[in-house]
From TrEMBL:
The keyword Cytoplasm applies. GO terms for cellular component: cytosol. InterPro entries: P-loop_NTPase, Pmev_kin_anim. Its EC number is 2.7.4.2. This is Phosphomevalonate kinase. Substrate binds at N168.
Length: 193
């Protein structure tokens, strides 16, 4: 049983280098860390993987090439754990959460989304971060077979009704306007609770 009961659970997803971490960091800064926490499903996975393979956990959490060089193996290890227990990483990610607003910054599979929708049926908001392939390439992405055509990247291309799509190319004004809309949504919900 999950101890806390959030007012909102924001389920973020998006392709590699679309800006999930960038947008969710921005959102948390606007809401404050007392009100809002970022919960990465990949954090418990990376922590265990780093321990098992004597790697730098902080580097695996970063945005650089170090993480990319282990991505494929981490994906396969994570999928093996999910096959045993689809909610394994979800439960680990939320177990210490106490703030009213939760941002799950890296949903990648329908099983991730379904777990949260079953645990918190009235609080989930599905948000998709999108950026053009040109923008993503400028941020260091390049198509990698076995990753960009696999469940880790494509698992939420279908089967989810997104409540909000955030376009995150390089126009700060466009992003700001979208952030204001999302902030209003979650702060209004918090007032109602
Ligand atoms: N709107 C933006 N303006 C400037 N830089 C951005 C913007 N969005 C993302 N970035 C930068 O692009 C890079 C990739 O962004 P980010 O790490 O948030 O992507 P991601 O979707 O979390 O990727 P991954 O799935 O690989 O973790 C980062 O260096 C980030 O700082
Ligand atoms: C292994 C994996 O968790 C790596 C995610 O790293 P990031 O979200 O790109 O920082 C992706 C997955 O679980 O399929």
């Amino acid at each position: 049983m999950t101890p806390a009961q959030p007012s909102s659970v924001l389920l973020f997803s998006g392709k590699r280098k679309s800006g999930k971490d960038y947008v969710t960091d921005l959102l948390q800064k606007r809401l404050s860390s007392e009100t809002c926490c970022i919960l990465r499903l990949s954090a418990p996975l990376k922590r265990q993987y780093a321990q098992d393979h004597h790697l730098d956990y902080e580097e695996l959490l970063g945005a650089g090439q170090y993480k990319e060089s282990y991505r494929s193996d981490m994906i396969h290890w994570g999928e093996m754990k999910r096959q045993e227990d689809s909610g394994f990483f979800c439960r680990l990610a939320v177990k210490n959460a106490v703030q009213p607003i939760w941002i799950i910054s890296d949903c990648r599979r329908l099983s991730d989304v379904r777990w949260f929708q079953e645990e918190f049926p009235d609080q989930c908001i599905c948000v998709r971060v999108e950026a053009s392939e040109e923008t993503r390439s400028q941020r260091g992405w390049s198509f990698t077979s076995g990753i960009d055509d696999a469940e880790s990247e494509c698992g939420l291309d279908d089967g989810v009704k997104f409540d909000l799509i955030i376009r995150n190319d390089e126009d700060d004004d466009v992003l700001e306007k979208q952030m204001q809309g999302l902030l209003s949504l979650v702060t209004n919900r918090m007032k109602l609770n």
